[in-house]
Amino acid sequence: xxxxxxxxxxxxxxxxxxxxxxxxxxxxxxxxxxxxxxxxxxxxxxxxxxxxxxxxxxxxxxxxxxxxxxxxxxxxxxxxxxxxxxxxxxxxxxxxxxxxxxxxxxxxxxxxxxxxxxxxxxxxxxxxxxxxxxxxxxxxxxxxxxxxxxxxxxxxxxxxxxxxxxxxxxxxxxxxxxxxxxxxxxxxxxxxxxxxxxxxxxxxxxxxxxxxxxxxxxxxxxxxxxxxxxxxxxxxxxxxxxxxxxxxxxxxxxxxxxxxxxxxxxxxxxxxxxxxxxxxxx
Length: 282
Ligand SMILES: [Zn+2]
Ligand SMILES: [Zn+2]
Hints:
It is a single chain. The protein is of the alpha/beta class. It has one domain (about 5-280): Metallo-beta-lactamase, Chain A (4-Layer Sandwich), CATH 3.60.15.10. It is built from nine helices and 14 strands. The protein has helices at about 30-35, 50-55, 55-65, 85-95, 160-170, 175, 195-200, 225-235, 255-265, and strands at about 5-10, 10-15, 20-25, 45, 75-80, 105-110, 115-120, 125-130, 140-150, 175-185, 205-210, 240-245, 270, 280. It has a seven-stranded mixed β-sheet. It has a seven-stranded mixed β-sheet with strand order 7-8-9-10-11-12-13. The mean pLDDT is about 95. The structure holds zinc ion (2 copies).
């Protein structure tokens, strides 16, 4: 399992990304569902402080406190700087769990901040938040996961391996390579459609689509499926997963998703998280 998503608009949203042992959001029921996997979670990145995205935090922090043996189960929680509800809730959790047996690291993030998720040799995987538009009362973020890779500079491409090795000896590997970033995963959090540049050329866009019917769209806090698919097209993303779908569509999701795919004429793979099922991707 690489990705596990549970999302029911208004009720609870969380997703677990196993390569980096991280949760994005922590809605109610997350530790109950994950069971033993709760102990594997290393980091939690919160998109905003609404109850349906943070209510499971207390359970997660508390469950992990009762683990047997493993003393290195440090947990890191990241949230949008200035997110009042998250701060209040975390303070409460710390107050009622004053004797935590493991290290709990809490960090507020700014949009330009970067957290290193994984590093092997020259390759690195990092996460960076971006601003979204949800509600005025609560600061909200989406997250991008990037892979930092290195490749030969254009002028050295096409050289034989022998020549390259010679150059490495002579002027060093760094002189002949450049670092570039590849966006592998983009998560919207709750928001109106995110900016095209934030989703641009991502391998996988996981975007909220609270409204599967354009006519139900109210206010300016959430997205409709049509808007998301149009964004996916403009941003040249390679695949989409729709989540945070309202339960009102429970019986007609497949029909409404197919209808929108046809209307927008999008040809990339589009999947959705059914509000009452846990979605998994391997
Ligand atoms: Zn929500
Ligand atoms: Zn929300």
